[in-house]
Amino acid sequence: MKEERYDAIVIGTGQGGKPLAADLARAGWRTAVVERGHVGGTCVNVGCTPTKTMIASARVAHLARRAGDYGVETGPVTVDLATVRERKRSIVHQFRTGSQQGLEKLKHLDLIIGTARFVGPHRVSVAVRDGGRRTLEAPQIVINTGAQPAIPKIAGLDAIEFLDSTSIMDLNEVPEHLLVIGGGYIGLEFAQMFRRFGSRVTIVQRSDQLLPHEDPDIAAAVQEILQQDGIEVLVDHEAVEVEMRDDRQIELHLRTSGGLKRMATGSHVLVAVGRVPNSEMLELAAAGIDADSAGYIRIDDELRTSAEGVYAIGDVVRGPQFTHISYDDYRILRANLLHGEAQSRANRLVPYTVYIDPQLGGVGLNERHANDRGIAYRVAKMPMSHVARALEVDETRGLMKVLVEEDSERILGASILAIEGGELMSMIQIAMMGELPFSALREGIFAHPTLAESFNNLFSSLGD
Fold first, then answer.
1. What pLDDT does residue 1 have?
2. Beta-carbon count within 10 A of 440 CB
3. Do the beta carbons of residue 10 and residue 111 sit within 8 Å?
């Protein structure tokens, strides 16, 4: 088969691959971009866009049920999940088609819908979706194939129709009782969402706290909020077996670290135990590309793989699986490939927001990280019930927590569990980016009454 020669090949059109392919093409590079599914990657199609769209619907249902707290009378609140789903699909379609059309109109760029695999150091074979196979060659290749839901080894799981983070968003009806295996970011967002849609919900978490990467006080506050919402939370419980009863109810056999056994019964099971890289189909060995035992592609801080001229970005690389990190990977490669720079992912801030309600926003170091690194610190901490704006809108659940270096005024990191916690965290992040001392926020003039002015009181606890 005749090889088609390009200046660059980009495999995957996620939040890093799509803009990089476009920039390479605009710079005059003859570029092939290969996508096996839908343009836009996880975020647009099965991640950020659809989940946050559905979370918005769940919050409306929650506020409608709380209307009486504000002196507003309403009738019974019900959720039409099919309508929620169609709203989600409409927004995804809008984002997806806009992204694809943007690529298709670019000169020097060929969008190929199909599945790619390496057949040599700089050669890629593509099984085209519409039939046939194409062989591409380029001196520069970028892998942006993302990740997919991980499926744990639980006895009997393969014998039932379980849900994952993609399929649960296509349900027609609200589950009677949703069993969520996994107490991480994804599991908690769906647990609270479906509780607000009207399901009974049980979360099963193997470790002794939800959100294992968070400080225990933050995880405990999150658990309290979910329990206030009527969600059953079982920490230190491992799912060891699944069975389907004759009445179509699902039995989840659980075991604690101490050996105690119990049963949870529900109508649906959501498996939300993390994600695994989409690398198996790539035939990495054919190109001399190293990966770890889990399939994550090994890279250096400039995103280079072990194969010369081949780079990997986004969720296919071990590290934080966030859209904005994939996009920052794109910025690094754009600078290095097009402008001859040597930008690096080393020491970059990694912000994130968990879209439970209230939101959990985090950036920089928490106490776990600081203790692991032997960094001395002070803690500024305040419940949201002490924030005037939160009281006025009756959204007082959560807390603000910021770490400051012991012998200076340098902000090390923040965990903000609050109404608009992601936005408040971003203000802390901007201060960190500008190397502002915490005293600048303590003494800053912020409009009243805003959530931002809470920084005055938060940092006052640290003194001068």
1. 60
2. 15
3. no
Cα dihedral 233, 237, 240, 243, rounded to 10, equals -30
Distance CA 245, CA 87 (A): 34
CB 20, CB 326: distance < 8 Å: no
What does the pLDDT look like over 80-107, one tens digit per residue?
999 999 999 999 999 999 999 999 999 9
| Residue among 148, 206, 178, 150 nearest 58 (CA) | 178
Q: What distance in Å separates the CA atoms of residue 146 and residue 36, rounded to the nearest whole number?
A: 11
Structure tokens at 325: 């990190």
Residues 155, 425: Cα–Cα separation, whole Å: 41
Q: What is the pTM of this model?
A: 0.96
Return the beta strands (E) in 245-294 as ranges. 250-255, 261-266, 268-271, 275-277
Helices 185-197 & 216-228 angle (0-180, nearest 10): 20
Active-site position among 108, 122, 324, 448: 448
Tokens of 445: 């003039």
- Whether 448 is catalytic: yes
Record the tokens describing residue 127, joined without a space: 């099984």
pLDDT tens per residue across span 116-160: 999 999 999 999 999 999 999 999 999 999 999 999 999 999 999
User: Token pair of 231, please?
Assistant: 């969600």
Q: Are 277 and 315 in contact (CB under 8 A)?
A: yes
In one letter, which amino acid is 253? H
CB count in 10 Å sphere of residue 98: 12
Which residue from 226, 21, 46 is spatially nearest to 142, judged by alpha carbons?
21
Q: Is 274 left (phi over 0), alpha (psi -120 to 50) or beta?
A: left
What whole-number distance in Å separates Cα of residue 183 and Cα of residue 450? 32
Tally the C-alpha atoms within 13 A of residue 361's C-alpha that lie toward its C-beta.
Answer: 17
In which element (H, E) is residue 128 found? strand 123-128
Q: Token pair for residue 422?
A: 């992601």
> Can you tell me the distance from the alpha carbon of 53 to that of 51, in angstroms, rounded to the nearest whole number?
5
> For strand 133-137 and strand 3-5, is the pairing parallel, antiparallel, or unpaired?
parallel
